[in-house]
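DM from R.C. (forwarded with permission)

"hey, sorry to bug you on a friday — could you get me a structure for this? deadline for the figure draft is monday and I only need the backbone to look sensible"
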Amino acid sequence: MDSTAAILLRRTRLTETSWIVTWLTELHGKVKTVAKGARRPKSKFAGLLDLFYEAEIDFARSRRSDLHILREVTLRDPREGLRHVYARVQAAAYFVELIELTTEPEHPVPELYDLLRRALAWLEKSTPDRRGALHFETELARLLGLGTTPSAAVALGRVHHRLPPGRAALLRAMDAAGRAKPIEDGMSTESPSQGHVAALFDTRAAADAAIAELETSGFDRELAQLLTGEDFETEAEMAPAPGILTPTGVGVLGPLGGLGGGLPTGVTVGGGGLWAANAYVGAMPQHGAHLRGEVSAGRLLVTVDAGQKAATARTILERNGGHTNFEAA
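My reply, with the result:
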Protein backbone atom coordinates (compact mmCIF):
# COMPACT_ATOMS: atom_id res chain seq x y z
CA MET A 1 0.00 0.00 0.00
CA ASP A 2 1.27 3.47 -0.93
CA SER A 3 0.26 6.67 0.88
CA THR A 4 0.84 10.19 -0.34
CA ALA A 5 -0.54 13.69 -0.49
CA ALA A 6 -2.33 14.27 -3.81
CA ILE A 7 -4.31 16.76 -5.87
CA LEU A 8 -7.15 15.49 -8.05
CA LEU A 9 -6.51 16.33 -11.71
CA ARG A 10 -9.18 14.40 -13.57
CA ARG A 11 -12.13 12.11 -12.94
CA THR A 12 -13.62 9.95 -15.72
CA ARG A 13 -16.28 7.26 -15.66
CA LEU A 14 -15.02 3.68 -15.84
CA THR A 15 -18.27 1.81 -15.24
CA GLU A 16 -21.74 2.61 -13.97
CA THR A 17 -20.38 2.48 -10.42
CA SER A 18 -16.68 3.38 -10.63
CA TRP A 19 -14.39 6.30 -11.51
CA ILE A 20 -10.90 6.50 -12.92
CA VAL A 21 -9.23 9.24 -10.89
CA THR A 22 -5.97 10.91 -11.97
CA TRP A 23 -3.89 12.50 -9.24
CA LEU A 24 -0.75 14.57 -9.03
CA THR A 25 0.92 13.12 -5.97
CA GLU A 26 3.72 14.48 -3.87
CA LEU A 27 5.71 11.24 -3.71
CA HIS A 28 4.85 9.33 -6.89
CA GLY A 29 4.13 11.94 -9.55
CA LYS A 30 1.04 11.53 -11.74
CA VAL A 31 -0.93 8.44 -10.72
CA LYS A 32 -4.13 6.89 -12.05
CA THR A 33 -6.41 5.01 -9.68
CA VAL A 34 -9.70 3.14 -9.89
CA ALA A 35 -12.21 4.25 -7.29
CA LYS A 36 -14.43 1.17 -7.18
CA GLY A 37 -18.04 1.85 -6.31
CA ALA A 38 -17.37 5.59 -6.01
CA ARG A 39 -20.42 6.49 -8.10
CA ARG A 40 -22.79 4.74 -5.71
CA PRO A 41 -24.69 7.14 -3.40
CA LYS A 42 -23.47 5.41 -0.25
CA SER A 43 -19.88 4.93 -1.36
CA LYS A 44 -17.12 5.60 1.16
CA PHE A 45 -15.70 7.98 -1.48
CA ALA A 46 -18.87 10.08 -1.68
CA GLY A 47 -18.00 13.78 -1.47
CA LEU A 48 -14.26 13.09 -1.52
CA LEU A 49 -13.47 13.00 -5.24
CA ASP A 50 -13.78 16.27 -7.09
CA LEU A 51 -11.51 18.44 -9.21
CA PHE A 52 -8.80 20.37 -7.37
CA TYR A 53 -9.36 18.48 -4.10
CA GLU A 54 -6.22 18.08 -2.03
CA ALA A 55 -6.18 14.84 -0.08
CA GLU A 56 -4.14 12.10 1.51
CA ILE A 57 -4.68 8.92 -0.50
CA ASP A 58 -3.85 5.24 -0.03
CA PHE A 59 -3.68 3.04 -3.12
CA ALA A 60 -2.69 -0.51 -3.93
CA ARG A 61 -0.43 -0.91 -6.93
CA SER A 62 -1.51 -3.04 -9.84
CA ARG A 63 0.94 -5.63 -11.07
CA ARG A 64 -0.43 -5.55 -14.62
CA SER A 65 -0.98 -1.89 -15.50
CA ASP A 66 -0.55 1.70 -14.40
CA LEU A 67 -4.16 1.76 -13.17
CA HIS A 68 -4.01 1.22 -9.42
CA ILE A 69 -6.72 0.62 -6.83
CA LEU A 70 -7.75 3.54 -4.64
CA ARG A 71 -8.28 2.35 -1.07
CA GLU A 72 -8.69 5.40 1.14
CA VAL A 73 -9.10 9.16 0.72
CA THR A 74 -8.74 11.68 3.53
CA LEU A 75 -9.76 15.14 2.37
CA ARG A 76 -7.32 17.89 3.30
CA ASP A 77 -8.65 20.87 1.37
CA PRO A 78 -11.64 21.04 -1.01
CA ARG A 79 -10.55 24.45 -2.32
CA GLU A 80 -13.97 25.94 -1.68
CA GLY A 81 -12.62 29.45 -2.14
CA LEU A 82 -12.07 29.01 -5.87
CA ARG A 83 -15.28 27.13 -6.68
CA HIS A 84 -17.68 30.05 -6.44
CA VAL A 85 -15.93 32.32 -8.97
CA TYR A 86 -15.92 31.15 -12.58
CA ALA A 87 -12.67 32.95 -13.46
CA ARG A 88 -10.88 31.09 -10.67
CA VAL A 89 -12.28 27.74 -11.78
CA GLN A 90 -11.27 28.49 -15.36
CA ALA A 91 -7.68 29.32 -14.34
CA ALA A 92 -7.47 26.30 -12.03
CA ALA A 93 -8.67 24.04 -14.85
CA TYR A 94 -5.94 25.42 -17.11
CA PHE A 95 -3.23 24.89 -14.50
CA VAL A 96 -4.39 21.33 -13.86
CA GLU A 97 -4.63 20.47 -17.55
CA LEU A 98 -1.18 21.92 -18.21
CA ILE A 99 0.28 19.83 -15.38
CA GLU A 100 -1.42 16.72 -16.71
CA LEU A 101 -0.14 17.39 -20.22
CA THR A 102 3.47 17.98 -19.24
CA THR A 103 4.06 15.31 -16.57
CA GLU A 104 5.05 11.69 -17.08
CA PRO A 105 3.12 8.91 -15.29
CA GLU A 106 4.63 7.90 -11.96
CA HIS A 107 7.66 10.13 -12.30
CA PRO A 108 7.98 11.87 -8.93
CA VAL A 109 8.75 15.57 -9.02
CA PRO A 110 7.68 16.94 -5.62
CA GLU A 111 8.38 20.50 -6.81
CA LEU A 112 5.58 20.22 -9.37
CA TYR A 113 3.16 19.12 -6.70
CA ASP A 114 4.18 22.11 -4.59
CA LEU A 115 3.81 24.45 -7.59
CA LEU A 116 0.25 23.31 -8.28
CA ARG A 117 -0.69 23.37 -4.61
CA ARG A 118 0.56 26.95 -4.27
CA ALA A 119 -1.18 28.00 -7.51
CA LEU A 120 -4.54 26.65 -6.34
CA ALA A 121 -4.11 28.30 -2.94
CA TRP A 122 -3.39 31.61 -4.71
CA LEU A 123 -6.54 31.25 -6.82
CA GLU A 124 -8.65 30.79 -3.71
CA LYS A 125 -7.78 34.30 -2.57
CA SER A 126 -7.00 36.19 -5.77
CA THR A 127 -8.52 37.21 -9.06
CA PRO A 128 -6.50 35.38 -11.75
CA ASP A 129 -4.55 37.62 -14.10
CA ARG A 130 -2.03 37.33 -16.89
CA ARG A 131 0.94 37.84 -14.63
CA GLY A 132 -0.06 34.96 -12.41
CA ALA A 133 -0.72 32.61 -15.31
CA LEU A 134 2.56 33.48 -16.99
CA HIS A 135 4.40 32.96 -13.72
CA PHE A 136 2.88 29.48 -13.43
CA GLU A 137 4.00 28.62 -16.97
CA THR A 138 7.48 29.98 -16.30
CA GLU A 139 7.90 28.01 -13.08
CA LEU A 140 6.59 24.85 -14.73
CA ALA A 141 9.01 25.17 -17.65
CA ARG A 142 11.88 25.84 -15.26
CA LEU A 143 11.12 22.83 -13.09
CA LEU A 144 10.88 20.61 -16.17
CA GLY A 145 14.26 21.86 -17.36
CA LEU A 146 12.87 23.32 -20.59
CA GLY A 147 14.04 26.90 -20.17
CA THR A 148 11.94 29.95 -20.96
CA THR A 149 13.32 31.03 -24.35
CA PRO A 150 11.68 32.72 -26.13
CA SER A 151 8.94 32.19 -23.56
CA ALA A 152 7.85 29.46 -21.17
CA ALA A 153 4.71 28.74 -23.17
CA VAL A 154 6.63 28.36 -26.41
CA ALA A 155 9.15 26.07 -24.69
CA LEU A 156 6.36 23.92 -23.26
CA GLY A 157 4.50 23.81 -26.55
CA ARG A 158 7.53 22.81 -28.56
CA VAL A 159 8.18 19.79 -26.38
CA HIS A 160 4.59 18.65 -25.98
CA HIS A 161 3.33 19.80 -29.41
CA ARG A 162 0.38 21.68 -27.99
CA LEU A 163 -0.94 23.54 -24.99
CA PRO A 164 -4.39 23.10 -23.43
CA PRO A 165 -7.08 24.42 -25.81
CA GLY A 166 -8.72 26.37 -22.99
CA ARG A 167 -5.79 28.78 -22.90
CA ALA A 168 -7.27 31.13 -25.50
CA ALA A 169 -10.54 31.56 -23.64
CA LEU A 170 -8.65 32.08 -20.42
CA LEU A 171 -6.56 34.86 -21.93
CA ARG A 172 -9.58 36.57 -23.41
CA ALA A 173 -11.37 36.44 -20.08
CA MET A 174 -8.35 37.89 -18.28
CA ASP A 175 -8.04 40.65 -20.85
CA ALA A 176 -11.72 41.51 -20.54
CA ALA A 177 -11.56 41.55 -16.75
CA GLY A 178 -8.48 43.78 -16.85
CA ARG A 179 -10.11 46.28 -19.20
CA ALA A 180 -13.18 46.46 -17.00
CA LYS A 181 -11.24 47.47 -13.90
CA PRO A 182 -11.39 51.12 -12.78
CA ILE A 183 -8.26 53.23 -12.86
CA GLU A 184 -6.33 52.76 -9.64
CA ASP A 185 -2.70 52.73 -8.61
CA GLY A 186 -1.71 54.20 -11.95
CA MET A 187 -3.34 51.44 -14.00
CA SER A 188 -4.81 52.35 -17.35
CA THR A 189 -8.21 51.16 -18.52
CA GLU A 190 -7.25 51.40 -22.16
CA SER A 191 -7.47 48.36 -24.41
CA PRO A 192 -4.36 46.18 -24.06
CA SER A 193 -3.57 46.60 -27.74
CA GLN A 194 -3.22 50.36 -27.29
CA GLY A 195 -0.18 49.87 -25.07
CA HIS A 196 1.74 47.60 -27.42
CA VAL A 197 4.53 48.61 -29.75
CA ALA A 198 6.40 46.48 -32.27
CA ALA A 199 9.35 47.02 -34.58
CA LEU A 200 11.17 45.10 -37.31
CA PHE A 201 14.96 44.86 -37.11
CA ASP A 202 17.48 43.89 -39.76
CA THR A 203 20.11 42.49 -37.37
CA ARG A 204 20.12 40.58 -34.11
CA ALA A 205 22.61 43.03 -32.60
CA ALA A 206 20.25 45.96 -33.16
CA ALA A 207 17.29 44.04 -31.75
CA ASP A 208 19.26 42.98 -28.67
CA ALA A 209 20.43 46.57 -28.15
CA ALA A 210 16.84 47.81 -28.26
CA ILE A 211 15.72 45.24 -25.71
CA ALA A 212 18.65 46.09 -23.45
CA GLU A 213 17.78 49.80 -23.55
CA LEU A 214 14.13 49.04 -22.85
CA GLU A 215 15.16 47.09 -19.78
CA THR A 216 17.45 49.82 -18.47
CA SER A 217 14.63 52.32 -19.07
CA GLY A 218 12.35 50.48 -16.67
CA PHE A 219 10.38 48.18 -18.96
CA ASP A 220 9.69 44.66 -17.72
CA ARG A 221 12.12 42.30 -19.46
CA GLU A 222 9.38 39.67 -19.65
CA LEU A 223 7.37 42.02 -21.86
CA ALA A 224 10.03 42.94 -24.40
CA GLN A 225 11.17 39.93 -26.35
CA LEU A 226 12.13 38.73 -29.76
CA LEU A 227 10.32 36.87 -32.54
CA THR A 228 12.32 35.09 -35.23
CA GLY A 229 11.56 33.09 -38.34
CA GLU A 230 12.24 29.88 -36.43
CA ASP A 231 9.37 30.68 -34.10
CA PHE A 232 7.00 31.06 -37.02
CA GLU A 233 8.20 27.71 -38.33
CA THR A 234 7.37 26.15 -34.97
CA GLU A 235 4.00 27.81 -35.10
CA ALA A 236 3.32 26.38 -38.54
CA GLU A 237 4.18 22.88 -37.38
CA MET A 238 1.86 23.10 -34.40
CA ALA A 239 -1.10 24.99 -35.79
CA PRO A 240 -3.86 23.08 -37.56
CA ALA A 241 -4.98 26.10 -39.54
CA PRO A 242 -3.95 29.71 -40.17
CA GLY A 243 -5.09 32.24 -37.62
CA ILE A 244 -5.08 36.00 -37.29
CA LEU A 245 -3.18 38.28 -35.00
CA THR A 246 -5.29 39.27 -32.06
CA PRO A 247 -4.94 41.78 -29.23
CA THR A 248 -5.16 39.03 -26.65
CA GLY A 249 -1.97 37.44 -25.61
CA VAL A 250 0.85 37.23 -23.30
CA GLY A 251 4.07 38.95 -22.84
CA VAL A 252 5.72 38.75 -26.23
CA LEU A 253 6.56 36.15 -28.66
CA GLY A 254 4.62 34.34 -26.46
CA PRO A 255 2.19 32.27 -24.89
CA LEU A 256 0.79 30.53 -27.76
CA GLY A 257 -1.90 32.56 -29.31
CA GLY A 258 -5.19 30.82 -29.46
CA LEU A 259 -4.34 29.01 -26.26
CA GLY A 260 -4.70 31.59 -23.56
CA GLY A 261 -2.71 32.34 -20.39
CA GLY A 262 -1.26 35.30 -18.90
CA LEU A 263 0.15 38.63 -18.12
CA PRO A 264 -1.30 42.14 -17.81
CA THR A 265 -1.06 42.67 -21.52
CA GLY A 266 1.06 40.99 -24.09
CA VAL A 267 1.68 39.54 -27.41
CA THR A 268 0.43 36.57 -29.32
CA VAL A 269 -1.06 35.16 -32.43
CA GLY A 270 -4.61 34.05 -31.96
CA GLY A 271 -6.84 31.45 -33.47
CA GLY A 272 -6.52 27.74 -34.15
CA GLY A 273 -3.67 27.19 -31.72
CA LEU A 274 -1.33 29.61 -33.48
CA TRP A 275 1.30 31.30 -31.45
CA ALA A 276 3.92 33.94 -31.11
CA ALA A 277 3.51 37.54 -32.30
CA ASN A 278 2.63 40.90 -30.92
CA ALA A 279 -0.42 42.62 -29.59
CA TYR A 280 0.30 45.91 -31.32
CA VAL A 281 -0.22 44.06 -34.56
CA GLY A 282 -3.26 42.51 -32.98
CA ALA A 283 -4.85 45.93 -33.05
CA MET A 284 -3.84 46.27 -36.72
CA PRO A 285 -4.51 42.85 -38.26
CA GLN A 286 -3.94 44.27 -41.73
CA HIS A 287 -0.21 44.04 -40.98
CA GLY A 288 -0.28 40.41 -39.83
CA ALA A 289 0.56 38.72 -43.13
CA HIS A 290 3.21 41.34 -43.95
CA LEU A 291 4.98 40.89 -40.62
CA ARG A 292 4.86 37.11 -40.83
CA GLY A 293 6.46 37.33 -44.25
CA GLU A 294 9.15 39.75 -43.09
CA VAL A 295 10.08 37.65 -40.06
CA SER A 296 10.01 34.41 -42.04
CA ALA A 297 12.38 36.04 -44.54
CA GLY A 298 14.95 36.70 -41.85
CA ARG A 299 14.04 39.95 -40.15
CA LEU A 300 13.43 40.14 -36.42
CA LEU A 301 10.34 41.40 -34.62
CA VAL A 302 10.61 42.98 -31.18
CA THR A 303 7.36 43.50 -29.33
CA VAL A 304 6.80 45.52 -26.18
CA ASP A 305 3.90 45.61 -23.75
CA ALA A 306 4.49 49.26 -22.90
CA GLY A 307 1.22 50.29 -21.29
CA GLN A 308 1.07 54.05 -20.92
CA LYS A 309 4.72 54.39 -22.02
CA ALA A 310 4.10 53.31 -25.61
CA ALA A 311 5.59 56.51 -27.04
CA THR A 312 8.79 56.04 -25.04
CA ALA A 313 9.08 52.42 -26.14
CA ARG A 314 8.59 53.38 -29.78
CA THR A 315 11.34 56.02 -29.51
CA ILE A 316 13.76 53.46 -28.06
CA LEU A 317 13.00 50.91 -30.76
CA GLU A 318 13.46 53.46 -33.54
CA ARG A 319 16.63 54.87 -31.98
CA ASN A 320 18.17 51.40 -32.22
CA GLY A 321 17.25 50.92 -35.85
CA GLY A 322 13.79 49.42 -35.53
CA HIS A 323 11.11 50.05 -38.15
CA THR A 324 7.76 50.79 -36.55
CA ASN A 325 6.12 52.01 -39.76
CA PHE A 326 5.31 48.66 -41.27
CA GLU A 327 4.16 50.03 -44.60
CA ALA A 328 7.60 51.64 -45.04
CA ALA A 329 9.50 48.73 -43.52
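R.C.: lifesaver. The chain is about 35% helix and 20% strand.
me: no worries. The two ends are 66 Å apart (CA to CA).
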